[in-house]
Structure formats: structure tokens, C-alpha cells
Amino acid sequence: MELNVQNLRVSINKKEIVKDVSLRVKNKQFVGIIGANGCGKSTMLKSIYKSLKPQGGSVFLDNIDLLNTPPKKVSQKMSVVGQFNEISFDLTVFQMVMLGRTPHKKLLDSDTEEDIDIVHRAIGQTNLTEYMDRSYLTLSGGEKQRVILARAIAQQPSFLVLDEPTNHLDIRYQLEVLHCVKNLDIGVLAALHDLQMAAEYCDYIYAMKKGKIIAHGKPNELFTEELVADLYDVKCKIYENPVSNNLSFVYQI
Amino acid sequence: MFLIKNKQLFEIKGIYFTAVVSLLAAIIFSLCFSASVGQADVPLKQTFNILINKITGGAFGSLENIPKAFVNIVWQVRIPRILFAVFIGTALAVSGAVMQAIVQNPLADPYILGISSGSSLGATFAILIGFGGGTIFSQFGLTFSAFLGAVLASLAVLLLSSVGGRMTSMKLVLSGSVISALFSSFSSIIVYFSNNAEGMKNVTFWAMGSLASSGWSKVPVLALVVSVVTVFFLFQHRILNTMLLGDEAATTLGIPLSKYRRFYMLLTSLLTGVVVAYSGMIGFIGLIIPHIVRGFIGSDHKRMLPMTALIGSLFLIWADVLSRIIVENVELPIGIITSIIGAPMFIYIIVKKGYNFGG
Hints:
The structure holds two protein chains of two kinds. By secondary structure, chain A is of the alpha/beta class. In chain A, 32% of the residues lie in helices and 28% in strands. By secondary structure, chain B is mainly alpha-helical. The interface between A and B is large, with 42 and 35 residues.
């Protein structure tokens, strides 16, 4: 599925956070958004997944007008791994992931064998099998994040939105999560803070500053030392890593 | 692996089913027992006979050899009262559980959104000032006035929490406190300026909660409202579960929470309003029963809500029994009993290791 965002404008308390942003995720592409804290990445994603109401613009997933479609319809096609997932009540990992089946359920439907299988597979894909009966609140930040990813996978989406999915994760799990997402083989729009990973996993990247897209392109073409300096206000050296042949970054204040 | 897991699920289902059936049996037994004890003890066997006889319209069970007074005590006085306990216990426990989900706060209870102060104001008004003889309100009196107060308070909370955009759980709780304070101060004004010692005593009694006003004439309304709303919520378990995740996650799972919140709040207000109007303020059930149930079987509303309803009614039946027998020839207000039992139980839950407000 193809995501098309046109001229999106979002204000919070009369302050314009996202200013006229347009972007596109082509079929099954992994697209990253990079930018400093507070540049409007999350706000933009929130308005794409209907948590915020934008002041203007349009968001289309193929021919579904996301901004004017009921949440239930949207959630059958698109799932989201957000940034904050604290809850005050406890559920087991299994129950938490099972909630991912909600969009596909009518009021009186019960959970079928098929649902249970889907949930088990999602839990397996995120390496959580041994945590199945653990309670969510006892998990570490990284484990919680993987549970949320499993829930998003259980929604069986054709498009996935990720807001800094590798926050709280240590190195192995960062790689695992991105690998797992990449293997889903669906369209992905992800806000990422680790440039090296963005360069490695993304097919296309948009760079955002103060609510505007200031550059976009394939990782190799997009990343310049000037751009990174401008985005994050740091000195930066970029070189091709001789071990992985990927882009590597060195930062200095 | 999957097979093993599914089998486990099946076994858990089996245990759950057994628990529900045992609870139902316990409620029926408690009902018979409760109908036998009190200031006049009726033998259990005779109580059973009276019940069977009355329920089957005389087809089974014989009333011979049973004093007429016993039949009246059991059927006219105690049974309506016990049915009150059954329905009110269910209503308070269920609305407590739902309210906790609505505001995503395990410390919420059915009264958190100002319903208690609203109905208190209504009751205080009816007892100390009254509506005057000529108006249509005077026919309904205390019950109607308390109900009206409860509904007014919750509408005010709804309105206040919707000001300036989306209704959030934080706004709900804050609006609830504000409206509570406002309505309580109105009640205090009425109490302060009234010179009616007897009336003030009545207000205090009313606030303690009691099943003494029960009667067959009131059972149908209570039963209807409680059954309909409870059954409705039993079918809402998916939405209630997503509510626990908060607004954003719920939206991404296709559930627009603010809409459901408003609707559920209206329903719980109706439920609690009717209960409070009939029985005054019976505390602690709405807070503690959902917690006890979560402690045993977790927060999944599909399992938790039916259990909450059953244990709520069982708890109130026994609280009522205690209120009648604990002090000889005196009937304690049931609200005192529920708090006296409830508070230590709650302390135990908090102290008990591993309870994380959810299981």
C-alpha cells in the first residue's frame, strides 16, 4: 500500500508544529523520518494515525482517506507502535498482544483458534515466547516495546507506523526489532533517532527541522555532513564503515 | 507448542467456568441463609419451603406447619431486601470496575465523578426542605430527589470535562472533585441553616447507606436497570480492555475512546444514581471488589466483569447479614459494615506482595 501525505499542517495550542509537510511511502518501502527532538516528527505521525486532528492537508493510504475514515477501518489496515506505553492496569503479554485483534472483531465475536495462532506467531516473531504469561507491568522498557510491536503485528496490517521504535532497547534488540519490521514486507513509516540504523534499514529518508521537510532522498544521497550539522546542531563526520560498508557517523559538539 | 498453550487455555476456561457456577450456587445458598437469620430466626428448612412455594406459585413446597408470621417475614420483608443486596452489590461492583477503566485509574470508584455529593444534595434537600405538598415532585420524595441530584452532578462533570476539546481521564477526575466540592457545600449550606435535628439525623443515616427502604414495589425498577446495564457492559469487554491502554493506543486499535467514555459514564451514572437513590451511600464495594477479582484472574474484562458482578452481590448479601446480626436487636447501616470489612481487605491487597493493581 502507498501512503500519501499532502500539505499536512498541525497546530497545538495555536502554535504551528507541522508546517505544510508532504511525503510519500511507496509500496512496501521502509521510509524513515529523522530530525532533532521537538522538530515535529511525532506530532506529524500522530496526525497520520488519527491521534491528533490536523488543521489542513490530506493523508491517503492507497485510496483510503485516513483523516475522514472511522478509526476502526483505519486500524484494520495500519498499525502503530507509539512512544509511550505505560498503563495502570496489568495484563499478561498474551492478553496484550491479543488486543491487536480488536480491529478485526465485531462486538460479540469471541477469540478464535485463528486469532490465537496469529497472536502466537506475533509473539514468536518478536522473541517473546517465554514471556507469554508474564505480566506486562513487570517487563523492562525494551521488553514492553517488543510486546507493543507484537501487538501491532497481530493486527496484520498492510502498513506500519513506528515512532522511535528502538528507544529503550539495547543493541541486539534494536537490530532485532528493525530486522523484524523489515521482514514484514509491508510499507513502513518510522521516526528514527539513530542515523546509522536509519541509513542501514531505510529505503528512503525525510529530514525534518522546525516542522518542515528540509531534505529527502535515498540514504546514500541524502546524508551529508552539512545536513546532519544543520539538523542536530553538531559537527559531524560521515564515512563508509570498512566492516559493514554502511555509512557511519562521528559527532562532536 | 501451540497445542500445549491451547490446552492450557482450555483448562483455565474450565476452572473459570467452575468458579462462576460455584459462585452462583454460593449466592443462592446465601440468599436462603440470609432469609433465615435476623431478629426472628426462621429455620433454614422452612425458609427453603417458603421460597420454593412462592417461586413456583404453590406448585411445590408446603406452607403447612409454618407460622404465617414467618412466611411474611421471609417473603415480604427479607427477600426483597436480599434482592436489593444482590442487585445493588452487582451494580456497585460493576460500575466501580467500569469507572476504573473509564478514568484509567485503579483508585476510582462509582462515586468518583461527583455522584455521591450530587445525590447527597438531593437527599438533603428532600429531607430538610422538601418540595412542598402541591408539586409533582413531592410524590416521589427522597428517592427521586437523590436520583435527580446524582444525574445532575454527573451531567455537570461530563459538561465540565468536555470544555476545551477532548475529554481525558485526568479532566474527568478533576471535574469530579470540583463538582463534588461544589455540591457538598450546597448540602452544607442547607444543613447549616436548617433547624431540624431529626432531619439532620436522617441525612446522616441516609449517607451511611442502608437496605432498610427495600420493598417488593421497588425491586422491579432496580432489577431492570441493573440487569440491562450490567448485561450491556458484559458485552463491552473488548472496548473496556482497550480503555486500559489509554487514548492513543485505543485509537490505533480502532476505538475512539472519548466517545465511549461519555456513553459509559452516562450509563454508570444511571446505574449508580438508581442505587444511591434507593440505598444511600454504600461505600467500598465499587472500589474493592474489582481489585479482589483482578488479583485473582487479571484485568481482562471478559472474565473479570462477570466475576466482579457475582462477587459484588455475594459480598453485599453477607454484609447485610452481618448488619442485622452483629448487634442484637439493632440494625447497623450497611455502609458501615462494608467499610469495616472492606478497608482491612484493601490493606491486605496493597500489602500482599506482587499485586500490581491488576494481577
